[in-house]
Amino acid sequence: MKKNIRHMITAVAIIAVAVLVMINRQSSLRQEEMADKMQLNFTINGENTVYYYNDNDENYTTFDTQMKRKNGDIFDKNYSGIFMATIIEEMGVEITDEISVSVVCADNYEIQLTGGELMADENIYLITKENGEKLAETDGPFMLVINNDEFSTRWAKNVVRVKINEK
Fold first, then answer.
1. Distances, alpha carbon 161 to alpha carbons 34, 40, 53, 153, in Å
2. CB 3.0-4.6 Å disulfide test: which of 22, 80, 145, 150 passes with 62?
3. 13: enclosing H helix or E strand
4. 37-165 carries CATH number 3.90.420.10
5. Local structure of residue 12 (DSSP, 8 states)
6. 3: phi > 0 → left, psi -120 to 50 → alpha, else beta; which?
7. Rounded CA separation 77/113 (Å)
8. Are 105 and 94 in contact (CB under 8 A)?
């Protein structure tokens, strides 16, 4: 009897894991499809909305920066994108010191941003091009670049969602 119960519990656990994997995969596919259309999910105070990214937007800009590694390596980079504060303001959110922003990547890696970081001039960008070319497919259509990040450790590829909480 105990053996049958163990088998049943194992079977239920396997089914539950399979269902969760399928749900997560469907969510990932929806996010990839949106990204291909240059759409980005925003969750603002718990409400979901979509940002339609446009390379022809008047705020789309090209800038030079440096990617810095902890080992001392420095790489000159040329990116094109939109200042993250501009995007957030276009979404109808006022940037203050009290705002909480999380940028989520396809692998569920999250970067926390403060209002001060967002307000810093020429600091945080959501980019779509490197050296005039679309980002590599492995990098996803959106990448977060934080110019004032000491070692570029919070730069993030494959951005799929931005979560904002106003306090």
1. 10, 6, 13, 19
2. 80
3. helix 2-36
4. yes
5. H
6. alpha
7. 22
8. no
Domain range summary for the chain, segments of one domain joined by +: 37-165
**Average pLDDT by consecutive 10-residue portion of the chain (167 residues)?**
71 68 56 64 92 89 91 92 94 92 93 93 94 91 91 90 90
DSSP string, 24-82: HHHHHHHHHHHHHTTEEEEEETTEEEEEE--TTSTT-EEEEEEEE-TTS-EEEEEEEEE
Residues ≥6 apart with Cβ < 8 Å to 16 = none
Q: How far apart are CA 44 and CA 165, in angstroms?
A: 6
Cβ contacts of residue 8 below 8 Å, gap of 6+?
A: none
Q: What is the pTM of this model?
A: 0.76
